[in-house]
Amino acid sequence: MPRYIAFLRAINVGGHVVKMADLKRAFERLGHMRVETFIASGNVIFDAPSSRTSVEKLEGAIEEHLHTTLGFEVATFLRTPSELAQVGAYQPFGPGVPAKTEVLYVSFVKRAPSADVQREIMACRNPIDDFHIHGREVYWLRRPQFGESKFTGARLERLLGTLATARNVSTVMRLSAKYPADRS
Question: pTM for this structure?
Fold first, then answer.
């Protein structure tokens, strides 16, 4: 059985409050096994019942089920433990970044942004906000305080032309450590 980490958009933000026990049951009703949640921001770890289902179909089935169950749209971004390990280990701005005064976010998208979209995002770089794109992840380094940044997740989605969900890199690294690629 393939193992996935689901990064869900719009869970426990914007008035969409969901108990993690309810989210776990929703995944179990889809036939997923060994379902766990990780912090209350929409991170679900599970074993899929079949390896023959494409990631795109699996994301779609989860999105449809959560929309029916929760009553609102929940964009779903799946990564395997191996993919997540690569995301967590990747150092888009070099070793030691972020510093204590900086915050590094990873935004998950379904497909790698096109070259044109990447250029648009990179044009937003400034002394406070820096960006790096690697595969299906957009790394956003914010210095030093959020109040000074004029960039938002909503603006990133507009530039991408699609939905995304972001996590602090420390959350990504904690997930990767807890669910390593070599353990199934």
Answer: 0.93
Query: Which of 105, 5, 112 is CA-nearest to residue 62?
Result: 5
Domain boundaries, the chain: 3-79, 84-178
Domain 3-79 has CATH 3.30.1330.60: no
Higher-pLDDT residue of 99 and 61 is 61
pLDDT category at 53 given cuts 50, 70, 90 is: confident
Is the alpha carbon torsion for 65, 16, 148, 158 positive or negative?
A: positive
Question: DSSP state, 159?
Answer: H
Fold of 84-178: Alpha-Beta Plaits (3.30.70)
From CA 43, how far away is CA 148, in angstroms rounded? 28
